Automatic annotation (TrEMBL):
InterPro entries: ADH-like_C (IPR013149), ADH-like_N (IPR013154), ADH_Zn_CS (IPR002328), GroES-like_sf (IPR011032), NAD(P)-bd_dom_sf (IPR036291), Zn_alcohol_dh (IPR050129). It comes from Amycolatopsis tolypomycina. SUPFAM superfamilies: GroES-like, NAD(P)-binding Rossmann-fold domains. One of its GO terms (molecular function) is zinc ion binding. Gene3D superfamilies: Medium-chain alcohol dehydrogenases, catalytic domain, NAD(P)-binding Rossmann-like Domain. This is D-arabinose 1-dehydrogenase, Zn-dependent alcohol dehydrogenase family. Keywords: Metal-binding, Oxidoreductase, Zinc.
Length: 337
């Protein structure tokens, strides 16, 4: 196996290139994965523009290697790792807690104060590369029915599944998702699988959500006056958190999974006077296994969300806003192209 590999390297806002870098080695407790697919996420775009808060908080720094939505095959294992992982198709958790702090011990390692995040935080190189090194404990095996495309959609799917679960709706309930991007549409799919009547609200053309079977897709101006038992904010708009509370039924639930680039105002009196439950969702970590199962059984099929698959050389253009392929919101990278 070659001692070097190709990787996408971000050296500053808008500054990037595909470079030949040292290939990762399987140190104790870790594995090396040959990356088959990696997704480009809104978080990656924030690093590309320089707006990502971690850059200003000291959690991340250029140069960095992005990519936290991935699937691949284990090609090497380090000391102390079960050799049965070799040759297995896997995806991995993005959030790597220290496994010793109080939060980790309570099962909340995705909130660990000293965590690394693959391709995001703490200098842990990401998956926009031919190979990737991660702790063996962070791996999730993929069944044969979950190929690389689905595998690279497990991480965002875990976030969406948790948002749908937090909405706590089912048969006879009505849910509204604000923002029909990747996370919003995945959340809508999980809500639909739970039996809820699902509505979406966005801006511009809503033809793509409708093509996925979501006939109830609206703009703010056309949104019907209906009682929504839950509202999920999957946007990046500063005004959406308060709008979610305005639109939800009294005694309903609002779920926040979108992040604005600036502080969002929310009058907590509205929460109290409407007896609303508000939930924030940070990570897909606790929902990865269940997401894999949903994909494997066909309960949720996110394939149509992938508009195109391109090579490492096209990542910069994608992060800069260039669109290619179909109407879906997600671009996948094949690092070996």
């Amino acid at each position: 196996m070659s001692s070097t590999m190709r990787a996408f390297v971000l050296t500053g806002p808008g500054e990037c290139s595909v470079q030949e870098v040292p290939a990762p080695r399987a140190v104790a407790g870790e594995v090396v994965v040959d990356v088959e697919r990696a997704g480009v996420c809104g978080t990656d775009v924030e690093f590309f523009t320089g707006a990502m808060a971690y850059l200003h908080q000291g959690h991340s720094a250029y140069p960095m290697r992005l990519g936290h939505e991935w699937a691949g095959t284990v090609t090497a294992v380090g000391e102390g790792v079960d050799p049965a992982w070799l040759g297995r198709r896997v995806m991995g958790d993005t959030m790597l807690g220290d496994r010793t702090c109080r939060r980790c011990r309570r099962g909340h390692q995705h909130t660990c104060e000293s965590r690394q995040e693959v391709g995001i935080r703490g200098g842990r190189a990401g998956a926009l590369a031919e190979r990737l090194a991660v702790p063996a404990w962070s791996l999730h095996a993929l069944p044969s029915s979950v190929d690389a495309v689905l595998g690279a959609l497990v991480e965002p799917g875990g976030n969406a599944l948790r948002a749908a679960r937090a909405a706590d709706v089912g048969e006879g309930d009505r849910a509204l998702v604000l923002g029909p991007g990747t996370i919003g549409l995945l959340t809508a799919m999980f809500l639909r699988a739970a039996g809820a009547e699902v509505h979406l609200m966005g801006v511009g053309s809503l033809d793509f959500p409708r093509s996925l079977g979501f006939a109830n897709a609206w703009t703010r101006e056309t949104l019907p006056s209906l009682p929504f038992d839950a509202v999920v904010d999957a946007t990046g708009a500063a005004g959406s958190p308060s709008l979610a509370v305005e639109l939800v039924e009294p005694a309903g639930r609002v779920v926040y999974i979108g992040l604005s680039g600036q502080p969002s105002g929310l009058d907590t009196r509205s929460l109290v006077l409407k007896d609303v439950t508000a939930v924030g969702v940070l990570s897909g970590s606790p929902g990865l296994a269940e997401t894999i199962e949903a994909y494997a059984t066909g309960a949720v099929d996110p394939r149509p969300l992938v508009a195109a698959t391109v090579g490492l050389g096209e990542v910069g253009a994608v992060l800069g806003g260039e669109r290619t392929g179909g109407a879906g919101p997600k671009i996948h990278i094949d690092p070996h192209r």
